[in-house]
TrEMBL record:
Residues 598-607 have a biased composition (Polar residues). It is an enzyme of class 3 (hydrolase). Residues 582-597 have a biased composition (Low complexity). It is found in: Cell membrane; Cell projection, Filopodium; Cell projection, Ruffle; Cytoplasm, Myofibril, Sarcomere. Its main location: membrane. GO terms for molecular function: phosphatidylinositol-3,5-bisphosphate 3-phosphatase activity; phosphatidylinositol-3-phosphate phosphatase activity; phosphoprotein phosphatase activity. Keywords: Cell membrane, Cell projection, Cytoplasm, Endosome, Hydrolase, Lipid metabolism, Membrane, Protein phosphatase. This is Myotubularin. Residues 574-607 are annotated as: Disordered. InterPro entries: GRAM, Myotubularin, Myotubularin-like_Pase_dom, PH-like_dom_sf, Prot-tyrosine_phosphatase-like, Tyr_Pase_AS, Tyr_Pase_cat, Tyr_Pase_dom. It is a peripheral membrane protein. Pfam families: GRAM (PF02893), Myotub-related (PF06602). It comes from the Eukaryota.
Length: 607
């Protein structure tokens, strides 16, 4: 029988304890990472993060079924990354086993939120294989037959965010139904149009059979339906898809009559049809069976708004990312920004919405469409409604606007964002909703007191557009959400927002119910949204907090503190007064009945 000498045995024993000590140290470094209810640790590993700002940083990475979390172990450099896996667009292997050069072997991660991540590992023994496979599997769960994290999360909130938008209640708030417009449930089983909501507002004189005939002549059966009505002049914003005119110039009397019913509802002389597309694109769409309303639509005028399609917007955002990440192109900044055309697209979207709002404000009804009515149409209707209706400028009203015009009317979030899908080159991907939120931010900059919510809300919405933590932005339309039981099996983003309202409030907000906002849509007045597009640059991050806003919040807190003290004084004075009143005191005159509490009520703070 072979025997091991005592020194050799002690060596192996010390090696064992040293190794287990290292692994426990490794776990210790990431053991304090706060996980969400339902979030599970999958793996962790020693890794080098190639930081574009600090260089190579040693540390540990933790991958859960929700996030990638990195923390540096270097004492002199503190770097942490907390990236929801839903924000990852692409994972690639960098370098091979024979790659030369320091840190040339590892992983390249492209994110949807304007950043890229690069990690280096040791080249021996296929050290990256396991982490690549785990990352690829959990970043793209739908491509691997796994559920999105929203179905695994177990967060609990006091308020159910799914109840924030109730179509009938929202129509009632607008004053509907009335003698010109009725509520139709023809689509209650999604039989008329599978990408529309179940509750629709249509002209009072239209019959259900008319709606079916019109649906046959509109792309994807997305018929013209009411989005918003002006309470005073009864002008409406109606949304739909393009008519199926085709190369032969087909006509449909039912569609023509239906649009005339919309015009007649408030005696508009000429119904204005805003086609979001450039004229040349609308003409080209005839080749695929689409098109636009021609002269046969009497008492109507057609205006093209020249907003480019999803492919142009995708390329524009790619160019923008190139000049802002990892480093800002300093030497030719203005010409570089101009070459992306991003702000030019933002300008055209805002300009189109201003035209819609102005027309409706002056008493004329409008119809808005693009090709299918779920991208540019949603941008135009929701921005015009934001300009016209102050309710949508409140924190809850804005949530209703997004639920109504984007989610219920079938903006294709799954296709445009690619939740849980590994196909990063999918031509359906496009930042249409990001562009809308950018337009909202531009408006908040031009009207700093008109919005109840702040920039932090807009950033939170965009972060969770990608994160897959909530069910709010999942899938392409309501019918598919119903199939996947989104409302019963996932949590709404608005549950989170409405549980922490103070974080999202604008301290400068001044309610003005009747005011229509007309932002200036010129290049001179539009800005790049630095706090979103360049926020991963540490220099920019340090400058984000506005000193004016910070000081104003401090003053508001001070005011609340003084008001509380004032209230306490009033309570103590009133109790003293009542005690004195119950005591029999001679020689009291009417002139001395003014109590201290009565004097205090006239105190006002200048804040």
């Amino acid at each position: 029988r072979s025997q091991i000498s005592v020194p050799v045995f002690m060596f192996f024993l010390s090696f064992y304890y040293c190794d287990s000590g290292l692994s426990s140290l490794k776990m210790e470094l990431l053991s304090d990472v706060s996980l969400l209810p339902g979030e599970e640790r999958i793996t962790d590993k020693d890794i080098i993060y190639i930081c574009p700002f600090s260089g190579a940083v040693k540390g540990k990475v933790l991958i859960t079924n929700y996030r990638l979390y990195f923390r540096s172990s270097d004492a002199d450099v503190t770097v942490t990354l907390d990236v929801p896996l839903g924000a990852i667009s692409r994972v690639e292997k960098m370098g091979g086993a024979s790659s030369r050069g320091e840190n040339s072997y590892g992983l390249d991660i492209t994110c949807k939120d304007m950043r890229n991540l690069r990690f280096a590992l040791k080249q021996e023994g296929h050290s990256r294989r396991d982490i690549f496979e785990v990352l690829f599997r959990y970043a793209f769960p739908l491509s691997h037959g796994l559920p999105l994290f929203a179905y695994l999360g177990q967060e609990k909130y006091a308020e159910n965010g799914w109840t924030i938008y109730k179509p009938i209640e929202e129509f009632r708030r607008q004053g509907l139904p009335n003698n010109k417009w009725r509520i139709s449930f023809i689509n209650k089983s999604y039989d008329l149009c599978d990408t529309y909501p179940t509750v629709l507002a249509v002209p009072y004189k239209s019959k259900e059979e008319d709606l079916r005939k019109v649906a046959a002549f509109r792309s994807r059966a997305r018929i013209p339906v009411l989005s918003w009505i002006h309470r005073e002049n009864q002008a409406v914003i109606v949304r739909c898809s393009q008519p199926l005119v085709g190369m032969s110039g087909k006509r449909n009397k039912d569609d023509e009559r239906y649009l005339d019913l919309i015009r007649e509802a408030n005696d508009t002389t000429k119904l204005t049809i805003y086609d979001a597309r450039p004229n040349v694109n609308a003409v080209a769409n005839k080749a695929t069976g689409g098109g636009y309303e021609g002269d046969e639509y009497q008492n109507a005028e057609l205006i093209f708004l020249d907003i480019q399609n999803i492919h142009v917007m995708r390329e524009s955002q790619k160019k923008l990312k190139d000049i802002v990440y990892p480093n800002v192109e300093e030497s030719h900044w203005l010409s570089s920004l101009e070459s992306t055309h991003w702000l030019e697209h933002v300008k055209l979207v805002l300009s189109g919405a201003i035209q819609v709002a102005d027309k409706v404000s002056s008493g004329n009804s409008v119809v808005v469409h693009c090709s299918d009515g779920w991208d540019r149409t949603a941008q135009l209707t929701s921005l015009a409604m934001l300009m016209l209706d102050s309710h949508y400028r409140t924190l809850r009203g804005f949530q209703v606007l997004i639920e109504k015009e984007w989610i219920s009317f079938g903006h294709k979030f799954a296709s445009r964002i690619g939740h849980g899908d590994k196909n990063h080159a999918d031509q359906d991907r496009s930042p249409i909703f990001v562009q809308f939120i950018d337009c909202v931010w531009q408006m908040t900059k031009q009207f700093p007191t008109a919005f109840e919510f702040n920039e932090h809300l807009l950033l939170t919405i965009l972060d969770h557009l990608y994160s897959c933590r909530f069910g709010t932005f999942l899938y392409n339309c309501e019918s598919v959400r119903d199939q996947h039981e989104v409302r019963s099996k996932t949590v709404s983003l608005w549950s989170l927002v409405n549980s922490k309202v103070d974080m999202y409030l604008n301290p400068f907000y001044t309610p003005e119910s009747g005011r229509v906002l007309y932002p200036v849509a010129s290049m001179r007045h539009l800005e790049l949204w630095v706090a979103y597009y360049i926020r991963w640059n540490p220099r920019i991050r340090q400058q984000q907090q506005s000193p004016v806003e910070q000081r104003y919040k401090e003053l508001l807190a001070l005011r609340d503190e003084y008001l509380k003290k004032l209230e306490q004084l009033q309570l103590s004075d009133s109790s003293t007064s009542s005690h004195l009143a119950n005591s029999p005191t001679p020689n009291t005159t009417s002139s001395s009945t003014s109590t201290p509490s009565q004097q205090y009520t006239h105190l006002q703070t200048p804040l």
